[in-house]
Amino acid sequence: MRGGKKGTKEETAHRMEIPNAILLGQVKEAIRRGHTATINVKGYSMRPFLEHCRDKVRLAPAGELRVGDAVLAEISKDVYVLHRVFSIDGDCVTLMGDGNLKGTERCRKENVVGIVVSYVRNGKTLRADNPHLQRGVRIWRKLLPVRRYLLFIYKVNLKLSNILK
After folding, report:
1. What residue numbers bound the domain in which 90 lies?
2. Hey, which residues does 70 pair with through a beta bridge?
């Protein structure tokens, strides 16, 4: 066995990438039928709360939306984002990633596929309604004017911690 110790069985996990349009379309249908779905986070737009390929989110059918909720929304045909509700005006929902400095997306309430009910990091689950998490989300929103600098510090810290491992 190459790379393995004698007498042990070396297992290799295979990772398969499925295009978002296909995977999230299936997630949308499952949630519409009342199921929950857990997906891996891809991308950096939800930093510092969610990290690419490290975290997972559990999605459930969306009930009443509130500012600060993290949701999966279809912003155009087969184009999905996992972002936070920034504002609600009637049927129009404005979304913004935690790691975004100014860009927003808009959709209708009916285009919200699901709401994040829990976060999974390193095998530990944190409910989305956790009061400490909710407080952090509210503070982070108020820090939008200085978010650029905070994200820079976060990225430097992340790189340093990876180097020191």
Report:
1. 20-160
2. 84
Examine residue 69 and state whether it is found in any structural domain, yes or no.
yes
pLDDT tens profile 33-77: 999 999 999 999 999 999 999 999 999 999 899 999 999 999 999
State how far the Cα of 23 lies from the Cα of 8, in Å rounded to an integer.
Answer: 35
Contact 83, 95 (CB under 8 A): yes
Q: How many domains, in total, are found in the chain?
A: 1
Q: Which distant-in-sequence residues (6+ apart) come within 8 Å of 80 by Cβ? A: 20, 21, 24, 72, 73, 74, 113
Question: Does a structural domain hold residue 12?
Answer: no
Whose tokens are 């039928």? That residue is: 33
Look-up of token digits 């982070």:
140
Q: CA–CA distance from 21 to each of 13, 44, 78, 80 (Å)?
A: 24, 18, 5, 8
Q: pTM to 2 decimals?
A: 0.85
In a domain, residue 2? The reply is no
